[in-house]
Write a structure and sequence with these properties.
Blueprint (H helix, E strand, L loop, with lengths): L10 E3 L2 E3 L2 H10 L7 E9 L3 E9 L5 E10 L20 H8 L18 H5 L2 H10 L4 E4 L12 H8 L4 E5 L14 E2 L2 E2 L1 E3 L6 H15 L7 E6 L3 H12 L5 E4 L8 H11 L7 H7 L4
Parallel strand pairs: 6-7, 6-11, 7-10, 11-12
Antiparallel strand pairs: 1-2, 3-4, 4-5, 8-9
């Protein structure tokens, strides 16, 4: 969601709408979505010529959600004056680099380890073990939770969903959606981690390859012990969705909302022909997916 969609006051700068910082802070302080959140500001340098500040945004639980720095100089460049360009045509950022060297090193916010690297080659090397666990009932379902992450509180749905999944389920993920649950201690099933992270968005290809490999054993892609609860936020997730539809996958669920650009006719085709649906509450969806 962009600032322009929040009904905030804007001013014109070079013909473009711009939301001033004061207006953004007003929204941050008064919006119910950010109740209990805080902005911490630290001055890294301040003297007669320059001021550098670092801001950290923390949620109601004190978790750092974003961090950035800003710099203001006494003598700003005149309007229209460009960054110095080297003889080879590249921009000269030496002034910024030298200034960065005077700043304090970043403060470590947290420590820990996350297991990743479960692209299709790695998972398929354990295919016999995976299939054995499926046939024995140790693995009852795979839950594809690939897709996008975002700052909205509604996306905490995916954290709660992962926490409440039964212990005989495994999450297949790729893309930044994983950041809602990849730090949870979900354990493993006979040595197989319960979160198999294939990588970034583009690595959703690996999830499709894994599904197709299982199809070879279980015949029908829609008879596989897999459910799809995909987090939508931007166009890459739609590309993944189209690939799944091309493979004949049905009953995929998207959330927290369906893509806004879907026309009524397109939405009707997806619902009627492919069973596309949205999400509701975690408890209701766990029942809907036959997970509890």
């Amino acid at each position: 969601m962009g600032w322009w969609s929040m009904d905030l006051k804007t001013i014109k700068i070079k013909g473009q709408d711009y939301v001033q910082v004061s207006e953004r802070i007003r929204h941050f302080r008064t919006s119910e979505e950010y109740k209990g959140w805080a902005i911490e500001v630290e001055w890294l340098r301040i003297d007669e010529d320059i001021a550098i500040a670092r801001a950290i945004i923390r949620d109601a639980e004190g978790v750092a959600k974003s961090m950035g720095t800003a710099m203001e100089k006494r003598e700003e460049r005149k309007e229209g004056e460009k960054v110095k360009v080297n003889e080879d045509g590249t921009k000269d950022f030496s002034e910024i680099i030298e200034l960065a060297k005077t700043c304090q090193a970043p403060t470590e916010l947290e420590k820990g380890e996350i297991v990743g690297g479960f692209a299709h080659n790695q998972v398929l090397s354990l295919a016999d073990t995976v299939i054995e666990n499926i046939k024995s009932g140790a693995i009852r379902k795979f839950v594809v939770m690939a897709g996008c992450d975002g700052r909205m509180v509604s996306r905490n749905y995916y954290t709660e969903f992962a926490e409440k999944l039964p212990k005989d389920t495994i999450i297949l993920t790729a893309g930044c959606a994983k950041y809602k649950y990849n730090k949870l201690n979900l354990g493993d099933i006979n040595g197989i981690p319960r979160v198999l992270d294939a990588g970034q968005c583009n690595d959703s290809y690996s999830l499709a390859v894994i599904a197709l490999k299982l199809k070879e054993v279980l015949n029908d892609v829609n008879e596989l012990p897999i459910v799809y609860n995909i987090a939508w936020y931007e166009q890459k997730a739609v590309i993944v969705l189209l690939a799944l539809l091309y493979l004949g996958v049905k009953n995929i669920h998207l959330g927290p909302t369906l893509p806004a650009f879907l026309s009524p006719n397109v939405a009707k085709v997806l619902v009627e022909n492919f069973g596309i649906g949205g999400i509701t509450t975690v408890d209701e969806d766990l029942k809907k997916f036959d997970l509890v």
